[in-house]
Structures are given as C-alpha cells and as structure tokens.
Design a protein that fits this description.
Elements (H helix, E strand, L loop, with lengths): L11 H9 L8 H10 L10 H9 L4 E4 L8 H8 L4 E5 L3 H13 L4 E4 L5 H10 L9 E4 L1 H6 L1 H13 L2 E6 L20 H6 L5 E5 L4 H10 L6 E4 L7 E7 L6 H11 L6 E5 L3 H13 L4 E4 L5 H12 L5 E4 L12 E6 L6 H8 L9 E7 L1 H10 L6 H13 L5 H8 L14 H5 L3 E5 L1 H16 L6 H8 L5 H6 L7 H14 L2 E7 L4 E7 L14 E5 L3 H7 L30 E2 L2
Parallel strand pairs: 1-6, 1-7, 2-4, 2-5, 3-4, 5-6, 8-13, 9-11, 9-12, 10-11, 12-13
Antiparallel strand pairs: 14-17, 14-18, 15-16
Helix pairs in contact: 3-4, 16-22
The structure holds adenosine-5'-diphosphate (ADP), magnesium ion and zinc ion.
C-alpha cells in the first residue's frame, strides 16, 4: 500500500512499489519517449517526471511537489499528448494559461481555454469538441471560477466522462485549495466537485511549495481519497541565503542595495521584492537616479506595461525589476543572480517561492532579505484577513531573527523535510559566519516594555509599535517619561527585543479598522503573565559584531539623563562605568 506521505523513499514498501513505476515497459512507454523528443524536443526526464507520468497514466491520483521551473507542466502535458481524449487543466491565472497555450501552440499541441473573455462561438466549439471520439484538443484550460460557476461546463464534463473522453484532471498550483497555503483562492475550495462527480478520472495536483499539512488539506478539499505524494528535494544548493537588518527611517537599505547592484551584481539580472506599489515606484526611481536600469512592476499597472517590463527584463534590457509579489508566476528566466527582499515576505512558504526564482541555471545566486521592525506591521495589516496570517508571519519573523540555525534547516523543518546542516555547504549567512552571536538575558527589558503597555492601558490609551518604541526610549512627553522606565538601549536593540517578544507571544497585535486603513496596536499577549514570576527568564540571541552587540559591550555616556533607575550592572567596557541597565550576556 503506497503511503501518501513524505518522499517516496521514506518507507520500504512505498519505495518498492514506486520503483515499479519508474520503468519503461508500460504499454504507453514507447509513445512517451517518442513524443518527449518529437513534440517537446527534450532528451530525457528530470527527477520525478517519469514516475509521476507513469502513475497518472496508471490511473493513480498524484500530488507532485517540485520547485518552480523544474518542469511540472510536462507531467500532465506529455500524458495529454499521448492520449485520445482531453485533459482538464485548472490554473489560477488567465495570464498563466495564455503563456501555456502559446507554448503549446508553438510546439504543435492543440490546446484551448474557456474563460470570461471567450467568445460564444469559441465556447460552443469547445463544448462540442469535448465529447467527440478523438477530441480536437488535447488540453482544456479553465480557471476554478469556471468550474464553480458554469453549469453548462459541468454538464459537458459529465457527458465527456460518459463518452470516456475526459482522460485526466490536472490542478496546477494545487496549494491554492488550502487556507493553510500561502495563496488561498476561495474558488479552489469548490473543486472537490470534480472527484465527487468523476471518481474514476485520475487527478494530478501540482505545486512548488506545500507543507504536508497543506497537502492533507488539499486532499480533503479535492476529495481525493488516497493520493500518492511525490516531493522533489526542496534544497536549492546554489542559493546563498542571507538576512540583513534594516534600519528604521533611513535610506540605509536602499543605499546598501544600490551598492550591491552597482558593484557585486554589475551587469547581472535580479529582482527586488518590495511591500507595496508605492515602494516599487519609489525604490525603482531611486535606483534609476544612481544609474541602474530598474523598472517597477505591480498589479495596478496596465497589462501592456507589465508585459513590456517582463519582456525587457527577460532579454536583459532591464537589469532589475522592483516588484510587488504580483511579479511571480510565469517567470522562467534562468540566470537571475539575485533576489533581494526589501521587506520580509508574509510567510516562509512565500519567501521560499519568491527567493527560489534565483539561480535556475544552477549557478550561484544570492537571496538577501532586509528585515526591518516596522515592516512586520505593514505585512501584518495586509494579512489580517487571512486565517493563519499572523501565525505564518511570526514564523517568518523567527526566520529573520534566527542567528544560530542554518537557514536551510529552518526552512526544512518548516516544510517537514529531513535535513542535515552540513549539506548547506556554507551557503547561508549563519553557516558561513559561524556562531558569532551572544545569548543575552532580556527579561528585565521585557518587563519594562510590558510596563509601557500597562501604563498606556491604565490611561485608556492604545500603543502602536512605533509609540511603544519611542515611549520606551524616552521620546514621549516629559509626563510619560516619568511614568515609565526609560531604556538606554539603541533603537535596533529595542526593535529586536520587541520583535522577539511579539513573535514569542508576550505581545500580540490588536487591529483597528478605519475606513482608510488598518492600524496595529500592541497589547499584552498570552505569555505576558509569565513575567510576573521572578524566576521566568527570556533570552535572545544577538549578533556579536552588529551595532547591537557593540552597544552591549560598550557603555553609553550621555544617556543617563533619560533614565530613572540608573541601575549599575557589570558592563564589559573596561574603564567607563556603565551608566544604565545594559543587556546582560548570559552565555
Ligand atoms: P514548473 O511548472 O515546475 O514551474 P515548467 O513546467 O514551467 O516548470 O517548466 C520549466 C522549464 O523546464 C520549461 O522551460 C521546460 O521546457 C523545462 N523542462 C521541463 N522538463 C524538462 C526536461 N525533462 N528536460 C529539460 N527541460 C525541461
Ligand atoms: Mg508551473
Ligand atoms: Zn546554512
């Protein structure tokens, strides 16, 4: 009994059973090989392609998880070409379908689509073709909306099923079925109707990123009783992962990025992902001023402009696209040397997918993420409507703050992958720069920050993250300064601590909706009460050579005016007596 979990090689019986399906002695094997080279002009299969094709052609339901650009489409296109009837393909975007149709047309495969802009005549022809003995098209592409909204289509599918011409169902970007996935589409949830109506028609679901819990959810949504899940190795050995701390209210990140592009990535192709349309335009204009050939890309641009930017970037007329996540699906440029995130992604899945567009040619490429405190809250207002949005974002924050685990290990454990740290080969900042961090005790700081919130609450006020930062740092009114224990930590230290407390559940977010925007406040979280216990400690790992740890080691003079307590602790700077409470190094 083949298992539906994990990699095929994980369990003995599964492995044996699957090995059988990697063979070339099936009734369709000769035809496959022939069309692979005749139609697709390809010499050999990539890992998992033949296996999934044989499985789907044997009538099994398959979920295929394979990084973007590795060739998932072939796994349903080649079976379609080798079949008499047609394959129903569900894809989320009309633009994606059009790309595929263009490609299929170019290689001489007959494929059609039905979408909102199809003419009546075209729809009629397609509907009629569906039940012809050898259907006039091998693939029929539709959006999930079409399935859920068009009764006519459903009734034609019924007829096709009776006539035996509905060979196979392919659900592209299958993770869109699950609210746990990073790209949930409500209409995908209704696709369960397909397996319920056509239980004998094999279904193949494809995605680049899905955790096993997302896949379980998809299986349920699609009503697939017992699918085989094939997972390609998630590791991209040629990508170097790095997180850089982004300073607040400064041009720092932008200068840093411009310098990288002008020097390290001179003449090389890349993408900068930004949070908003406004950021895309602003950052792109800034880069242009520095002589970099950059263009913005976001969802609100005219279709023609989007397609021009995409084309010019693909042909290297544009070096850098400064884009929102709208720039994604359908990118097949292989020589992308850098993917820079100007602010964090909304989840680790999203980050993996976005950064994974680098280095598809298997040559080294960099994935750099700028992590800024304020960005956390910009993203959290964006995902506020998503069920598990905050939870996923906090996992992303933990990834960014992580200093002691290989970045690949963090991702692997997120995707339930088995992973050995050594396999990173120093291709992440943590592995390369070693364990150059210190563990500091931030319990007292946490208590202070909690007091700021309690003080505000007692005055029936709410605090935004910015207000909390500034009040704690003594930038509020004199009255406020008297009411709280002002910290002498640097801004970056304060932000690192607050982000950690939020991510650990000492704080939580409190959203307030106005007609124009969403405001985030911070309130005490489920773990805040633990701080009432004297024995409770909170530690945080901080970089030794960052501005943060410099101020840990050095005492700061001139800041004592802001402090009330002025407790002396054993600072490490010889000579200068520490004026205020410092971060305590515990290890
Ligand atoms: P995915 O859907 O996994 O992101 P695609 O199906 O769009 O990837 O394929 C990406 C690229 O890989 C395409 O240009 C395709 O022609 C190429 N490709 C697919 N299979 C093979 C193969 N066996 N050998 C070489 N190239 C392949
Ligand atoms: Mg694809
Ligand atoms: Zn590593």
């Amino acid at each position: 009994q083949p298992s539906s979990s994990g990699q095929p090689s994980e369990s003995g019986s599964t492995k044996q059973d699957l090995q059988r399906y990697e063979g070339t002695d099936f009734p369709w094997s000769k035809e496959l090989q022939k069309q692979l080279s005749a139609v697709f002009q390809l010499r050999s299969f990539r890992p998992l392609q033949l296996l999934s094709i044989n499985l789907t052609m044997s009538g099994r339901d398959v979920f295929l998880v394979m990084p973007t650009g590795r060739g998932k489409s072939l796994c349903y296109q080649l079976p379609a070409v080798c079949s008499e009837g047609f394959t129903l393909v569900i894809a989320p975007l009309v633009s994606l379908m059009e790309d595929q149709l263009m490609y299929l047309k170019a290689i001489g495969v007959s494929a059609v689509t039905l979408n909102a802009s199809s003419s009546k005549e075209h729809a009629k022809l397609v509907m009629a073709g569906m039940t012809q003995q050898k259907t006039p098209f091998r693939l029929l592409y539709v959006t999930p909306e079409k399935i859920s909204k068009s009764k006519l289509l459903m009734s034609r599918l019924e007829k096709a099923n009776q006539a035996g011409t509905l060979e196979r169902i392919a659900v592209d970007e299958v993770h869109c079925c699950s609210q746990w996935g990073h790209d949930f589409r409500p209409d995908y949830k209704l696709l369960g109707i397909l397996k319920r109506q056509f239980p004998k028609v094999p279904l193949i679901g494809l995605t680049a990123t899905a955790t096993s819990s997302v896949l379980k959810d998809c299986q349920k949504m699609l009503c697939v009783p017992d699918p085989l899940t094939l997972t390609a190795p998630f590791n991209r050995p040629n990508l170097y992962y790095q997180v850089r701390i982004k300073e607040n209210n400064s041009e720092h990140a932008m200068d840093d990025i411009a310098k990288l592009i002008l020097e390290k990535y001179k003449d090389q192709s890349g993408i900068i992902y930004v949070f908003s349309q406004k950021d895309a335009e602003a950052l792109s204009a800034d880069l242009q001023k520095k002589g970099i050939v950059a263009q913005p890309y976001h969802a609100n641009m005219e279709f023609a402009d989007k397609s021009r930017v995409h084309r010019h970037w693909s042909s290297n007329k544009i070096q850098v696209v400064v884009a929102t996540v709208a720039f994604g699906m359908g990118i097949d440029k292989t020589d992308v040397r850098f993917i820079i995130h100007h602010s964090l992604s909304k989840s680790i899945e999203n980050y993996y997918q976005e950064s994974g567009r680098a280095g598809r040619d298997d040559k080294p490429a960099d994935c750099i993420l700028y992590f800024g405190f304020a960005d956390i809250f910009r993203v959290s207002t964006m995902v506020v409507m998503e069920n598990v949005g905050q939870q996923k974002l906090m996992q992303m924050v933990a990834y960014c703050q992580n200093l002691d685990r290989c970045r690949r290990t963090v991702m692997a454990s997120h995707f339930d992958e088995i992973w050995d740290d050594d396999d990173c080969n120093q291709m992440c900042d943590v592995c390369r720069h070693g364990n150059d961090y210190i563990t500091v005790d931030i319990t007292e700081h946490a208590r202070e920050a909690v007091q700021v919130i309690e003080m505000a609450t007692s005055m029936k006020e709410k605090v935004t993250p910015l207000k909390l930062t500034e009040t704690w740092m003594g930038k509020g009114s004199a009255k406020r300064r008297k009411m709280v224990q002002v910290t002498t930590l640097s801004r970056l230290e304060v932000e690192a601590i607050l982000a950690h407390l939020l991510q650990q559940g000492y704080f939580s977010e409190d959203f307030s909706f106005t007609p124009y925007n969403t405001i985030v406040y911070l309130k005490l979280g489920r773990k805040a009460a633990l701080l009432k216990n004297d024995k409770h400690t909170i530690t945080l790992k901080m970089k030794r050579n960052s501005p943060i740890s410099d101020s840990v080691k050095m005492s700061r003079s001139g800041s004592s005016a802001q402090t009330k307590g002025g407790k002396r602790s054993g600072g490490k700077a010889g000579g200068t007596p520490p004026a205020t409470k410092k971060i305590k190094e515990v290890l």
